[in-house]
Amino acid sequence: MKITTKTAHFSTPLYLESGRILEPFEIAYETYGELNEAKDNVILIAHALSGSHHAAGLYEGDRKPGWWDGLIGSGKGIDTDTHYVIATNVIGSCFGSTGPMSDAYPSEEPYRLKFPVVTIKDMIRAQKQLLSSLGIHHVKAIVGGSMGGMQALQFAVDYPNFADRIIALAATYATRSWTIAFNKVAVEAIRNDPRFEGGNYPRGAFAEEGLEGLAIGRIAGHISYLSPESMDEKFGRNYVGTDGLFELFGRYEVERYLEYNTNNFSRVFDPLSYLYIVKAINTFNLSRGYDSLHDAITRIKAQVHLISFSGDYLFFPSEMEHIARMLERNGQPHTYTEVQSDYGHDAFLVEIDKFDGVVRAAMEN
Fold first, then answer.
1. Nearest to residue 225, comparing CAs of 152, 285, 147?
2. CATH 1.10.1740.110 fits 179-280, yes or no
3. How do residues 308-353 score in pLDDT, each as one tens digit?
4. Rounded to 5 degrees, what angle do the CA atoms 332, 333, 339 make?
5. CA separation for the pair 175, 171 (Å, rounded)
6. CA–CA separation, 257 vs 263, rounded Å?
7. Measuring CA to CA, which residue among 234, 264, 238 is closest to residue 251?
8. Is there a contact between 217 and 269 (Cβ–Cβ < 8 Å)?
9. What angle do CA 183, 185, 190 make, to 5 degrees?
């Protein structure tokens, strides 16, 4: 599979939903496969909170492939033998696109907290500008899970004629208070960590030791991505063999797992980017800017394929089903699949074999 990684530079302003302007700005993106002469084989991939443009394949020297490698590639559900796949990195991220630690032009100092709040609408507007610069004005499909699913749905509403198909997994029509509450733990843990310094930390400050506040906040997030059943199956009540049961800070295996994963995460993910992206997730509301959710949904012209997961405790299946019922009442082309899974929200990343066939069918329909 041919992988190309690039960064696009834009001197034209990006007008944000808040009324502010981002100028200039950059978007990192990765492509797989070959663009055909008619430019009608394009699939756009949108990532979740902690994701990036590296959705598939292996970089030289890496052992871990892109985050959706099981779905994207030769002969896979999103087949790079026949499709030209573009995966973008959202603005606000810390993986190459313009974010809070980017230079605040014309200064060489980072934006930090002067970076504007960005929304899902802003993210897709930036992606639309990227695709236009590549001469792509229509795509075969937009696919994403979680925050990526939000982007796919927002594309369907804001740009009704842009995509033939929308495939949204483990997403919602508006972020509910339950999810916002989980995110609040991360926000406060980061803000109250003394090493966060009110956002005035230097670049690379946490590359070696991480930021404890982000690690703690990520624990709350990680719990919401799993489910009681998946935790029981993976860890049970197993205790760390080297820790004493009657030591106050002795750990169960689930505790050690959360410590290890979240500490590693806090070394590679910028805490300001985390705050900004969480804000974008919290403010997501498909109906904002329209008279109602019904009004927003009626704008959709693409085939919509919705996939939820029964064990998802972050965005419940009923939220995706609500969108499906509205599409059904309106007579708009769609499918809705609830995948039976005990894994939790992260099933859209892990249990690809359970929905690979749904994606293939959507692409062939």
1. 147
2. yes
3. 999 999 999 999 999 999 999 999 999 999 999 999 999 999 999 9
4. 115
5. 9
6. 10
7. 238
8. no
9. 100
Q: How far apart are CA 293 and CA 284, in angstroms?
A: 12
* Residues sharing a CB contact under 8 Å with residue 335, sequence separation 6 or more, in sequence order: 303, 304, 305, 306, 358, 362
Transcribe 199-210 into DSSP letters. GTPPTTTTTTT-
| Position 227 confidence tier, pLDDT thresholds 50, 70, 90 | very high
| Cβ contact 166:142 at 8 Å | yes
The CATH 1.10.1740.110 domain(s) of the chain lie at: 179-280
Amino acid at 324: A
Looking at residue 338, what DSSP letter applies? E
Q: Rounded CA gap, 79 and 40, in Å?
A: 14
CATH of domain 3-175+284-364: 3.40.50.1820
Would you mind telling me the total number of residues written for the chain in this entry? 365
What's the order of all strands across the beta sheet hosting 25-32?
Answer: 3-10, 25-32, 84-88, 42-46, 139-145, 163-169, 303-309, 334-339
3-state secondary structure (DSSP) of residue 363: helix
Any idea which residue has 């002067």 for tokens?
114
By CB atoms closer than 10 A (0-12, 13-18, 19+), residue 108 is exposed
Q: What percent of the chain has pLDDT over 70?
A: 100
Q: What is the rounded average pLDDT of the residues 55-62?
A: 90
Relative to beta strand 25-32, strand 303-309 is unpaired
Q: Which are the catalytic amino acids?
A: 146, 312, 345
Considering the chain, tell me which residue range(s) the CATH 3.40.50.1820 domain(s) occupy. Answer: 3-175+284-364
